[in-house]
Each structure stands twice: as structure tokens, then as C-alpha cells.
Design brief:
four-stranded parallel β-sheet; 4 helices
């Protein structure tokens, strides 16, 4: 399933790495669990320490299945790279074009999202439930 975030999220202080729960006090999706969901957010916010929290989410098995973003984010990408190198677990991250981002946001948020990975390349398929 998709988890579309209404506001940017900082993994550092905004997510519990042990549970994968969004804990940022004022975040609209507070209480949502990231595990096995395709997380959609326009951009991340916060500290460079977010990369370490994201890597810990992967290590603990509580990371999203994939992250879809409007703009590429080096800190989020670094967390994925570190997790891949240290734990041999991949977290696909995709930055969409303007047209594809708008199309995704117009879709029903209750879409089914699937990540297919061969270890080298990942494909994210989003379709209506």
C-alpha cells in the first residue's frame, strides 16, 4: 500500500527506528507505520543524521518497501546506500518527473504498490486496489 505523506518528514526525530512508526508530534501521518509500504513524500526535511536512522530502519526490518519522492534527496539516498553496503538490504528510492508526480498525487491513495527487485534493479508498480 501507498503511504502518502502530506508534509515533509525528518527521519531523525520524526521516526522511531525500532518500530518504524512516525512519531513527529505535529505530522499529519503521526502513528503510521512505514514497514513494507511505499512511502510517497515530496521531500525530506531535517538533519543529515536522517541517513543513519533510515539505515537503522532497514537493519531492523521496519523500513518502507520503497520511497518515492518529488525531488532527489542526497541524505535519504545515503541512508539507502549505507544500508545496502552494511546490511546487504536494498531500499529503492525514486524521484519522479513533474508529470509523473502530479499523476501519482491525483491517483487514489488506496492504491496497491508492489516493489519487484532482482537485487540490482527495482521496479515500483502502483495500481488501483
Amino acid at each position: 500500500m501507498l503511504l502518502v505523506l502530506d508534509e515533509p518528514l525528518s527521519f531523525w526525530g520524526g521516526v522511531n527506528a525500532e518500530t518504524g512508526e512516525i512519531i513527529q508530534q505535529d505530522h499529519p501521518q503521526r502513528g503510521a507505520l512505514l514497514r513494507d509500504r511505499v512511502m510517497v513524500m515530496a521531500r525530506a526535511k531535517g538533519s543529515s543524521s536522517s541517513s543513519s536512522v533510515l539505515a537503522e530502519l532497514v537493519r531492523n526490518g521496519n523500513a518502507p518497501a520503497a520511497i518515492v519522492m518529488r525531488a532527489a534527496d542526497l541524505i535519504v539516498a545515503l541512508g539507502s546506500i549505507v544500508a545496502s553496503e552494511l546490511y546487504a538490504r536494498n531500499l529503492p528510492i525514486v524521484a519522479l518527473s513533474d508529470a509523473n508526480w502530479l499523476y501519482l498525487l491525483k491517483s487514489d491513495r488506496d492504491c496497491f504498490a508492489e516493489v519487484i527487485s532482482d537485487g540490482k534493479q527495482s521496479t515500483i508498480i502502483v495500481s488501483p486496489v
